[in-house]
Design goal:
Blueprint lengths: L8 H12 L5 H5 L5 H26 L6 H9 L1 H34 L5 H19 L3 H33 L7 H4 L5 H12 L17 H30 L10 H10 L3 H35 L17 H19 L5 H33 L14 H21 L7 H32 L1
Helix pairs in contact: 1-7, 1-10, 1-12, 3-10, 3-15, 4-5, 4-14, 5-6, 5-12, 5-13, 5-14, 5-16, 6-12, 6-13, 7-10, 7-11, 7-12, 9-15, 11-12, 12-13, 14-15
């Protein structure tokens, strides 16, 4: 008996927007000043086109549960599929604490401004295990969270944009928007900030991780990606502009800038500010859910195929990825405890985790560029409901996608202002080395056990 498909086009758009639009990065984009407008349109738009076109073609041509794992498997075989899934899942392990910190900062600004880093860490751990519990439910039961989060995300962003318009009308802008300030200087500082734009526009493959739950993935995946991409880049720019209108650039905090701007506009009405803050908490929760369900679903597929150890193959009666979810909860807790006892502030904790997770985050998409080209070559007969036109243009798209990701990885290796460059680079290198060695070890164990069985 064929299982009932649970996700309609609206559900797919909501799940895509919940996981794709990185609302926690809006404030960090605003810290770049008015030049973020030009940079987002140029670099963000270019990457959005490349990433979106590749994911639209791959998601429509190979509408299988597992997304990027399945694509890599068909292109390069088991080992690279397992390796890519490991990066994908390991990124989520660090992403969850990072976003949890941003979520708790919202709560902190509204209710408990003197919250210690240790308290922040403990609340983040509790939130991580709530995410684990939600991942163990069926999508039919838990999709309400992503749908609600997507709607509230729009509501919060529209409230911020409305606040920016009101502030500009009443008192003008706190920052100058002119040709000189909007067009960036093409220097090393711009190069170092490129990862912010690319990071904020990644993740269009997430919805394909659950294409087995969709009514018509070949039709709905390309539609959802187009709609989500256009909405996301527009809202990124308008929200960042609104924060720059409300707050001076020098006073924008990368972790709390968005809620600071909302409080600045709506603080006179405490009820409105609190309601928006609560909505923002739901938004972060849906964002975390979207990425964890994508990463854990991909890991479950690899575990069931014997490419990752059997722990990753554990699912419950609803075929929810219970094993990967619990492992993610354990790993994220360890990471939070380690960084929580070494960071001196919430903002430092946020950026330490973000820098570590981002490089791992980009690696599966580097492989995706090559998977796309290889599948076009070795599997030309597969029907592609959506196909990038031309013979040379698809290769140009894949190469540009690869180049932009490599630039982003190098950009994250450049230490931010105030950081000790040697300590920063050594820290990232050590973290990446440990992650890769552990991944290769787990893949080796899985291959050994699979061969024995």
């Amino acid at each position: 008996m064929e299982k009932q498909k649970k996700l309609k086009l609206f559900d797919i758009i909501c799940l895509s927007f919940a996981s794709f639009f990185s609302i926690e990065l809006v404030a960090s984009q605003a810290t770049l000043g008015p030049s973020m407008i030009f940079s987002m349109l140029l670099f963000g738009g270019l990457y959005l086109i490349c990433h979106g076109l590749i994911c639209a073609e791959m998601g429509a041509a190979y509408p299988d549960q597992g997304g990027i794992y399945v694509w890599t498997l068909q292109a390069f075989g088991n080992k690279w599929a397992a390796r890519t899934t490991w990066w994908y899942w390991a990124n989520v392990v660090a992403f969850v604490p990072c976003t949890m910190v941003a979520l708790v900062v919202v709560f902190q600004q509204l209710f408990w401004q003197n919250m210690s880093v240790i308290t922040t860490t403990l609340i983040c751990i509790a939130g991580t295990w709530i995410a684990v519990f939600l991942n163990c439910m069926s999508l039919e039961d838990s999709k309400l969270l992503s749908n609600t989060g997507s709607v509230l995300k729009l509501v919060v962003c529209l409230a911020l944009i409305g606040g920016g318009i009101y502030t500009f009308t009443v008192s003008g802008s706190q920052n100058i928007f002119s040709t000189e300030t909007v067009i960036p200087k093409f220097d090393m500082q711009l190069f170092a900030l490129l990862p912010v734009y690319i990071y904020g526009l990644n993740g269009m493959d997430v919805i394909s991780c659950n294409s087995g739950e969709m009514e018509n993935p070949k039709r709905d995946v390309p539609k959802a990606l187009l709609i989500t991409g256009i909405i996301s880049i527009t809202i990124y720019i308008l929200c960042a502009i609104s924060i720059l209108v409300i707050l001076p650039q020098a006073e924008i905090d990368s972790a709390s800038g968005m809620i600071d701007a909302i409080i600045s506009v709506f603080g006179g009405s405490r009820i409105v500010a609190v309601l928006i803050g609560i909505a923002l908490v739901f938004v972060y929760a849906s964002y975390i859910f979207g990425w964890t369900i994508g990463g854990n679903s991909a890991a479950l597929e690899a575990g069931e195929a014997g490419e990752l150890p059997g722990w990753f193959a554990k699912s419950n009666e609803k075929h929810a990825p219970a094993g990967p979810a619990v492992l993610l909860g354990i790993a994220s807790t360890v990471l939070l405890l380690f960084y929580g006892f070494t960071a001196s502030s919430s903002s430092e904790l946020f950026w330490t985790l973000l820098a570590f997770t981002s490089i791992i985050f980009f690696l599966p998409y580097v492989v995706l560029s090559f998977s796309f080209l290889r599948l076009r070559k070795i599997d030309p007969d597969t029907y592609r409901p959506f196909k990038i036109p031309g013979k040379i243009f698809p290769s140009i798209i894949a190469v540009l996608n690869f180049i932009l990701l490599v630039i982003a990885i190098i950009g994250y290796l450049l230490p931010p202002e105030g950081e000790n460059p040697v300590t920063y680079v050594l820290f990232l290198a050590a973290g990446l080395a440990v992650t890769q060695i552990l991944g290769e070890f787990l893949i080796w164990i899985a291959a050994k056990n699979h061969k024995t069985n």
